[in-house]
Design brief:
This protein is of the alpha/beta class. It is flat and about 85 Å long. It starts with a strand and ends in a 7-residue tail after the last helix. It has 14 helices and 12 strands. Helix 4 runs antiparallel to helix 5, helix 6 packs antiparallel against helix 13 and helix 12 packs antiparallel against helix 13. Helix content is 47%, strand content 17%. It has 3 domains: 114 residues, 2-Layer Sandwich (Gyrase A, domain 2), CATH 3.30.1360.120; 131 residues, Up-down Bundle (Four Helix Bundle (Hemerythrin (Met), subunit A)); 140 residues, Rossmann fold.
Length: 446
């Protein structure tokens, strides 16, 4: 029998109410020790908590009888006043009664081990706790609700159907089976492989919703990148001076656009330099920009000469942002815009001094991010771990398809391995080290 654990389920600090959770076989005994008779399951009861002859607080006490609880065990919650002294006194009493402080994610891990959640749903719980934007909330809530798991269950069923045909050909070669029974597995495997191909192509979308869409501000020194960053995020995140090369490292600022998390980065000005520190900043700027989902090439609209905007790393689909348009020469801006359009760049004009101009750019960026990350279907992968297992399953399927008709036994084994790769995502056969890594990212009390 497992021990009984406890942890605060609300953040530390002054608050109106704090919640302390317990889970394990001693839950009812602990309630009785602190509050007298335990309330009926799922009924909130106002009680005075006492320990060692002293009152701790007036609290709402809730009891959940296993297996009809989050963890699948007997569990309880104490809703006390949110002062630090109250919470510390309650936790000291729980420890004195023989309970153990929970490890990060231990409540959700117990729910997984007791069959209340699969691993993908458990990861969704962690993502829901960490959600900062509406898109993150929707994706995490869908994952908690089993949207991800249902897709994998569907794929697993397709694998089982195909495997049945292959194993029939292997185990009963002398029986009166339909002609070329092994070949009948091929259409289903091809269909599944095509679905995995589509899922892998879409995998980056789910990860970007969760981790953030990356936008890089790049360009020459003094082009207005830092000023534009500060205007977009509406605070002084980057230092702005008239001295070229002020920004020497990557300044990453999270923000929300159209309900999606975005990570926008101000980078060092791109130029040849003998300054070792600035040269390292330029190298990092190019590396960050190479990995970005969208790059905004910021060009000083006041001093622009459009050939100077040419850079070997500019690619079609990048944005050309002509800055300082409030003081720029109209003819120079027109020439630069014409050049940008000829290079298949999206051209935007902006003045960081104008709230309306910056707002229009922010709106355009939000529309771009929403278009890139919105999808008709729930993403099949929201973490790198998911994408890796999908790729593993796809490789096994590709090999199985090449083996049907030649070595049916090998094809059957590869189909089994593909199924195991998918099962690792939901945790049915996940090794202990993977479980430990997943749940170690949780906060205490969840």
């Amino acid at each position: 029998m497992s021990d009984t654990i406890f942890a605060p389920a609300t953040a530390a600090g002054r608050a109106a109410v704090a919640v302390v959770r317990i889970s394990g076989p001693k839950s009812v005994t602990v309630i009785e020790a602190l509050a007298g008779r335990a309330p009926a399951p799922r009924v909130a009861s106002l009680r005075t908590l006492r320990h060692g002859g002293k009152a701790i607080d007036e609290a709402l006490v809730l009891r959940f009888a296993g297996p009809a609880s989050f963890t699948g065990e007997d569990s309880a919650e104490f809703h006390v006043h949110g002062g630090r002294a109250v919470v510390e006194a309650l936790m000291a009493a729980l420890a004195d009664l023989g309970l153990r402080l929970a490890e990060p994610g231990e409540f959700t891990r117990r729910a997984f081990e007791n069959g209340k959640l699969d691993l993908a749903q458990a990861e969704g719980v962690a993502d829901l706790v960490d959600a900062e934007t509406e898109a993150q909330r929707r994706q995490a809530l869908g994952q908690v609700g089993g949207a991800l798991s249902r897709r994998y269950d569907h794929w697993r069923e397709l694998l089982v159907q195909s495997l049945a045909m292959l194993e029939a050909a292997v185990d009963f070669p002398d029986e009166e089976l339909p002609e070329a029974v092994a070949e009948r597995a091929r259409p289903g495997l091809r269909k599944l492989k095509a679905e995995l191909d589509a899922a892998l192509a879409d995998a980056e979308r789910g990860r970007r919703v969760r981790d953030g869409y990356r936008i890089a501000l790049v360009g020459a020194p003094n082009a207005g990148k830092s000023t534009l960053l500060n205007a977009l995020v509406e605070r002084d995140a980057a230092i702005v001076t008239d001295i070229p090369g002020t920004t020497r490292d990557i300044i990453e600022v999270p923000m929300a656009l159209a309900g999606y998390r975005v990570l926008i980065a101000d980078t060092a000005g791109l130029r040849e330099t003998s300054d070792l520190v600035e040269a390292e900043g330029v190298r990092r700027a190019r590396a960050w920009a190479d990995e970005a989902d969208l790059r905004l090439w910021v060009v000083d609209g006041f001093h622009v000469k459009h050939p100077a905007t040419r850079d070997a790393t500019i690619r079609p689909g990048d944005w050309l942002v002509l800055s300082k348009t409030d003081i720029a020469n109209a003819q120079a801006l027109d020439e630069a815009e014409a050049w940008g359009l000829s290079e298949d760049l999206h051209v935007k004009r902006v003045s960081a001094a104008s709230a309306q101009s910056v707002g229009a750019l922010r709106l355009a960026l939000g529309e771009h991010v929403a278009s890139a990350l919105a999808g008709a279907e729930f993403p099949a992968a929201t973490r790198l771990r998911h994408a890796e297992r999908l790729g593993e399953a796809r490789a096994y399927l590709e090999r199985a398809l090449s083996e049907i008709g030649l070595e049916v036994e090998l094809a059957a084994e590869d189909v089994r391995l593909a199924g195991r790769a998918l099962e690792k995502i939901t945790g049915r056969v996940d090794p202990e080290d993977v479980l430990g890594r997943v749940f170690s990212t949780f906060c205490i009390g969840k």
